[in-house]
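Hi again,

Forgot to attach this to my earlier email, sorry! This is the prediction with magnesium ion bound. I've pasted everything inline since the attachment limit keeps bouncing my files.
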Amino acid sequence: MESMLKPMRSGDQDVLDKDASVTPQGGVNDTYGEDAATENVAITPWARLVASGLELLRNPKYNKGTAFTEEERDLHYLRGLLPPAVFTQDLQMERILHNLRQYETQLEKYVDIMDLQERNERLFYRVLIEHVEEMLPIVYTPTVGEACQKFGRIFRRANGIYVSLKDKGKVLDIFKNWPEKDVEVIVVTDGERILGLGDLGVQGMGIPIGKLALYVALGGIRPSTTLPVTIDVGTNNDSLLKNPFYIGLRQKRATGQEYDDLIHEFMMATKQVYGEKVLVQFEDFANHNAFRLLAKYSATHLVFNDDIQGTAAVALAGLLAALHLIGGTLSDHKYLLVGAGEAGSGIAEILALEISRQENKSVDEARKRIWLMDSKGLVTKARYESLQEFKKPFAHEHLPCSTLVSAIKAIKPTALIGTSGQFGAFTKEGLEELSAYQDLPIVFALSNPTSKSECTAEEAFVYTKGKCLFASGSPFPPVTYGDKTFVIGQSNNCYIFPGMGLGCVISGAIRVHDDMFLAAAEALAAQIRPEHLEKRQLFPSFKEIRIISAHIGAAVAAKAYQLGLATRLPQPKDLFSYAKRCMYTPTYRRYR
Ligand SMILES: O=C([O-])CC(=O)C(=O)O
Ligand SMILES: [Mg+2]
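Structure tokens for the complex follow:
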């Protein structure tokens, strides 16, 4: 069946995304114009359910609140159910922002704005899209981290599906309970490693919800096609297990066969229910499962791991942008990655792939420029036997180095990239050493949320005497050093995954290939212009993110076509304008 993501007709706001049309009975339904007659609707007759009156007001997908017009109030049995004033969406947005700005804590803002998502979806996305820089730190890192820590307490309404050990053998039934039948993007976590905050069990659900909100706002994926999932196999977080408000299974994590069986049942069900083209993004799994699951399912499913591949692609984009300032090719430089988990080894690997591709070197040769440091110090050949598989390709001959300073002294890297989850891992001494032998040292402190960042933006500039090219995973305010003010670029996978999703959806990709991430990274780096570089900004502003996502989506789709992984034929001639036209816009539609 055709995907539901269809190009919009230009100049016709009302039929743009045609998820509303009017049934003979006069209510608003959720069919899609020409798609209404397809098998999708035929097998799910309830999808045509008419919403009117109070039901319409309580349906976040269609509710417009005070913005329902007089005519709509008459037509859809709303008269008297709303106060008399008719607001524009602009005025509603102003009110939302006004209220949001009154709160003292970020968590209050989070609760308030997520409430809006569950009340009036289009208004929520308009606020997100048009105020993206203000909203990102609320719906995403760092606040989403705190929201996950307190998720049981702030939980109000289900949004997404929970698959727990109790549901073994019944996962398919769970999918049947989800009302949307045209899901195109799933983000799934098991909550074992939420950002750098560790095991938060089922409360990790805040992450898939937040990531998918960004798929919509940043990448133009349609809300009804997104599905947040948390797989609950228990938690090893004792304080959660003792917390009366904990909303998950109250048991230690299941492992081994029991764990694998549940994941497998889930993975098989995704394909069975939504077909081969549903994208499954693995998010915030612990290392011991993340690499394994990615390897296992990338042969059979459209999957990627955001923490390994998404974070890698965004860091690569930052390094490619940095070359404009530091000169040379990628392999003219050396890279020291502090933290050798998913993100660290993902960055190492994509960097080696890109060097190999750009400079016609073998991947093994390229890897020699890249060094890893883990909790035991520099990853070297001497440690080979005891290393986890994913670290082995980067174990080079070297004497041991146990501290950051000794490793920097020995390797003399151009770029220091932190994915350690250790606040303060980039010490004053380390940063001073890094800037002692070069003019523009690269410092990426990528761990999230802010409380786990390897150093603050200010520390990076102060300790390198204003020399560094800095980026962080979580947002930092601008830093003034001397007479210069630096805007802090956010090297966060949210630059990549929305465009990656868009590219997969518009091409009907059936597998994710590493080259699609290389294409995404290059497309992002290509968005860096001289005015960014003047301010040493390695990432463009989020204000431009939708256009950037369209570029990334087009590049990803082009690669999918080239690799024979795309199924939507014929290939659109101009993928960039096609991508743009496919993107969801949250302006209200008129209900006739
Ligand atoms: O969620 C984020 O901000 C980036 C990410 O994937 C992580 O830190 O795990
Ligand atoms: Mg993550």
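The longest strand covers residues 226-232. Residues 106-300 form a domain with the Rossmann fold fold (CATH 3.40.50.10380).

That should be everything now.

G.
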